[in-house]
Amino acid sequence: MKKIITTTKAPAPIGPYNQAILSGNTLYISGQIPINASTGKLVEGNIKEETKQSMENLKAILEEADMTFEHVVKSSIFLSDMNQFTDVNEVYGTYFNPETAPARETVEVANLPKFVNVEISMIAVK
């Protein structure tokens, strides 16, 4: 059985999907891009600000499911430019304890929704 997880503290989906699905003890979070849920606008300027907004969106969804970043077991980061990896990694790393950080891959892609520079999805287990 699956449970839909939704919060107004993260942006509403821009297509036929949900913010997250809880199946048993496992939470599958859809990719989050740097949209500010309060304003509905993209956070633009630099990759660090964009990454922080994406991570804050993920945090809000985790909290709605009564979880934290400590529950995350897998992350996927999609970048429009791998040259931004260091800056993204710097911001991303502030949300995790290095000793218990999740498995992860980071890939460069041609385009992302709304032509943003970063999108991050996660899987968490309680």
What does this structure look like?
This protein is of the alpha+beta class and 126 residues long. It has a single domain (2-125), classed as 60s Ribosomal Protein L30, Chain: A (2-Layer Sandwich), CATH 3.30.1330. The protein contains two helices and six strands, in the order E-E-E-H-E-H-E-E. It has helices spanning 47-64, 85-93; strands at residues 2-5, 20-23, 26-32, 72-79, 103-108, 118-125. It has a six-stranded mixed sheet with strand order 1-2-3-6-4-5, covered by helices on one side. Helix 2 (85-93) links the parallel strand 4 and strand 5. Helix 1 (47-64) runs parallel beside helix 2 (85-93). The longest helix is centred in the middle third of the chain and has 18 residues, at 47-64. The chain is globular and about 40 Å long. The two termini are 16 Å apart. The mean pLDDT is 97. Belongs to the RutC family. One of its GO terms (molecular function) is deaminase activity. This is 2-iminobutanoate/2-iminopropanoate deaminase. InterPro entries: RidA, RutC-like_sf, YjgF/YER057c/UK114. Pfam families: Ribonuc_L-PSP (PF01042).
